[in-house]
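Lecture notes, part 5. Sequence design as translation. It can be helpful to think of inverse folding as translation between two languages: the language of shapes and the language of residues. The source text, in structure tokens, appears below.
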């Protein structure tokens, strides 16, 4: 009997391993197809052909320039020092789930970003969010609707409504944050918590401050029918 059970266990382990490999292959194939699609969209836009994405790309670039200008004025006036603006020492905020972090430029971001980011939300149809991320994907100040204080123990609610002070270093978030090309177009599923996802497009543009790459402007919008 023991031998028979061992055989069954080995068979189950083998099936799990094969399933895992198959799923991994499917994910890689899906990401490869997605990457080709994104590069095609970028190529078309770069060639000067106006598409449904063009207004969102241009808006992302304008808002990125506005954020950069506001930060440069803050540097010039002494409101913040370069070492604080480019601070990467993200300090965990105790008791937060999903984890939130603080850094030394939070107060400046809270003062400067909201008027610029909020104005962009109504500039075009179907915009979901417009946020500045530093080069590591850290969102100091999200749109006001997503800057709610966390509710202790309510991870699902927090995931949806408390998206500020968080590091989004997933594939999409990090690509937008590190991109230094004139723009980047991506397609992805946004995690809304509780197993809920929303399919979005995202146009990103780099934010350069005093000659240094600070991060990226992320402009997400729903697919247009």
């Amino acid at each position: 009997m023991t031998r028979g059970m061992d055989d069954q266990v080995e068979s189950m382990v083998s099936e799990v391993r094969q399933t895992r490999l198959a799923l991994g292959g499917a994910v890689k194939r899906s990401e490869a197809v997605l990457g080709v699609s994104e590069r095609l969209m970028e190529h078309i836009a770069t060639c000067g052909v106006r598409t449904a994405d063009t207004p969102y790309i241009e808006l992302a670039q304008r808002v990125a320039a506005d954020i950069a200008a506001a930060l440069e004025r803050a540097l010039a006036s002494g409101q913040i020092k370069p070492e604080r603006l480019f601070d990467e020492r993200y300090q965990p905020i105790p008791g937060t789930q999903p984890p939130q972090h603080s850094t030394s430029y939070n107060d400046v971001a809270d003062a400067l970003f909201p008027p610029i980011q909020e104005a962009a939300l109504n500039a075009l149809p179907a915009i979901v969010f417009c946020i500045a991320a530093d080069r590591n994907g850290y969102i100091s100040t999200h749109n006001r609707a997503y800057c709610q204080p966390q509710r202790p123990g309510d991870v699902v609610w927090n995931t949806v409504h408390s998206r500020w002070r968080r590091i989004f270093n997933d594939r999409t978030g990090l690509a937008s944050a590190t991109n230094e090309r004139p723009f980047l177009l991506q397609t992805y599923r946004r995690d809304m918590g509780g197993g809920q996802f929303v399919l979005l497009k995202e146009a990103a543009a780099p934010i350069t401050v005093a000659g240094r790459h600070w991060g990226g402007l992320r402009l997400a919008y729903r697919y247009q029918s």
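The translated text above is only one of many valid answers, since several sequences can fold into similar shapes. Strands lie at 91-92, 101-102, 127-134, 138-139, 166-167, 184-191, 197-209, 212-222.
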